[in-house]
Specification:
Number of strands: 0
Shape: globular
Structural class: mainly alpha
Order of helices and strands: HHHHHHHHHHHHHHHHHHHH
CATH topology: Amino acid/polyamine transporter I
Number of domains: 1
Largest sheet: none
Strand content: under 5%
Bound molecules: tryptophan
Radius of gyration: 21 Å
Length: 454
């Protein structure tokens, strides 16, 4: 199949930035710190790092290998490799997960727009107590009109970029924005660590307390590793499919993982010292980042400018991720169903908005959704179902597929297609065939059997 019309990254750097743009997002800055806070801090961080190394990286390379070889989307890649089997079902699950994640992610991403608005109005220029910050957050997310309007606005931005295509739309945005985000995070981390009482937060993050560890936190760490690296639903299959044949894929993949993991840790270094310094509860849940940061901005020189820059970049980091979520779904409809990219972006983005409305209303806007099932909000339920379960199942299936059906030899051939050797190639093959699938299956099985997660 001729693929010139599908588009391609302009080169290795373009891929790294776009894939890191997909990986780095609210998962690092919003989800990672609150997950760590709810699951005992340091112990969770260790589990998370283990999951990235032993499961995340192997799955990342499995997905990239499939995408590069087939130059297809999440479903099409399975179809091309093993026609007339049930394996493409894994791709369909991925498409559903992409939709499901986008439908709650865009709500949280919408909040960043709301915060950006407050920053522009100068609301973070003066000292803000933890109570004031909490009140601001609660009123913003609890207002039905604001929550829905921000979600719609965010999806609209996503649609506008995805309809522009691969290198002109997605890549161009990522090239400028990723480095700017990194710079601002470093400044914030330095400020946070040097706040009075900040050291306590640092030790919370770095000193593991294993008594806090439960099967639920292992599941959370696994889900977080997959979510943060954009794995388990075909996003990296899709991004790998635009990877130029001549470039070094093992290196590029490793850079994406390094960038993603360092930014998550950096976000932790910002959040926990500031949180302890302001006397907030680390287990505060999804509101954590939004509540903590406004208490520190005023202690920075040019706090208002700084707050504007931070929320603008956070919104952009989220945007490079929502782009990849929508892109997975769009690529499927373009490749497999013959839709025009333009139509796919608008139709699918709009449907996603409808699914996002209950999540947008679930944070105080409408009682039915606030405590939807098991005393959990609609947004959190989506987050758990798609962000933890669907991704784990997708990652498990991907390992089994690459390890046993397509086979690791073919996977390596694809990863090494440019002539660059994959480091630790036999270790990768072993982990993909045995360690990762067994570990994921144990975690999933335990959680399902004990019903622990909710
Ligand atoms: N990785 C992104 C983040 O950390 C979210 C994301 C984008 C994602 N694309 C994905 C998660 C695909 C899972 C699958 O914010």
């Amino acid at each position: 199949m001729a693929n010139a019309s599908r588009g391609q990254w302009s080169g290795r750097l373009g891929f790294i930035l776009a894939a890191a743009g997909s990986a780095v997002g609210l998962g690092n800055i919003w989800r990672f710190p609150y997950m760590a806070g709810e699951n005992g801090g340091g112990a969770f961080v260790l589990l998370y790092l283990a999951c990235v190394l032993l499961i995340g990286l192997p799955v990342l390379f499995s997905e990239l290998a499939m995408g590069r070889k087939t130059e297809r989307n999440a479903v099409g890649a399975f179809r091309a490799l093993v026609p007339n089997t049930w394996w493409p079902a894994v791709g369909y699950l991925g498409i559903a997960a992409g939709f499901g994640i986008l439908a709650f992610y865009s709500v949280v991403a919408g909040w960043t727009l709301g915060y950006l608005g407050h920053a522009v109005l100068g609301d973070f220029g003066a000292a803000m107590t933890a109570e004031q910050s909490n009140a601001l957050f609660t009123s913003l997310i609890g207002s039905p009109t604001q929550a829905i309007a921000y979600t719609a606005g965010f999806l609209l931005l996503t649609i506008l970029i995805v309809r522009g295509g691969v290198s002109s739309g997605i890549e161009r945005a990522a090239k400028i924005l990723m480095p700017a985000l990194l710079a601002i995070l470093i400044v914030l981390a330095v400020r946070s660590v040097t706040l009075p009482g900040g050291m306590e937060g640092l030790s919370y993050l770095l000193k593991p307390d294993f008594s806090k560890m439960t099967a639920g936190s292992v599941m959370a760490a696994l889900g977080q590793a997959l979510f943060s690296l954009s794995l388990g639903m075909g996003a990296m299959v899709t991004y790998g499919s635009y990877f130029p044949k001549r470039e070094n894929m093992p290196f590029a993949g490793a850079m994406v993982a390094v960038a993603d993991t360092s930014i998550a840790i950096l976000a932790g270094l910002i959040m926990f010292p500031a949180l302890f310094s302001a006397g907030l509860d680390p287990a505060a849940g999804p509101g954590l980042v939004f509540v903590v940061l406004p208490t520190v901005f005023n202690s920075l020189p040019a706090g208002t400018l700084f707050a504007i820059a931070f929320y603008a970049l956070l919104a952009i980091a989220a945007l490079t991720s929502t782009i990849s979520l929508l892109e997975v779904v769009v690529a499927y409809f373009v490749d497999e169903r013959g839709w025009k990219r333009e139509k796919a972006a608008w139709v699918l983005g709009s449907v996603c908005f409808l699914i996002a409305v209950p999540s947008a209303l679930s944070q105080g806007g409408a009682d039915v959704f606030t405590s939807f099932l098991f005393d959990t909000s609609f947004l959190d339920i989506q987050n758990i179902i798609w962000g933890n379960y669907a991704l784990s199942i997708g990652a498990l299936a991907t390992c089994l597929f690459v390890g046993w059906k397509w086979t690791v030899g073919k996977g390596l051939e694809s990863l090494e297609a440019s002539g660059h050797v994959m480091p630790l190639r036999s270790a990768w093959a072993f982990v993909v065939r045995f360690l990762s699938p067994i570990a994921i299956a144990i975690v999933l099985g335990y959680i399902v059997l004990t019903g622990q997660y909710f």
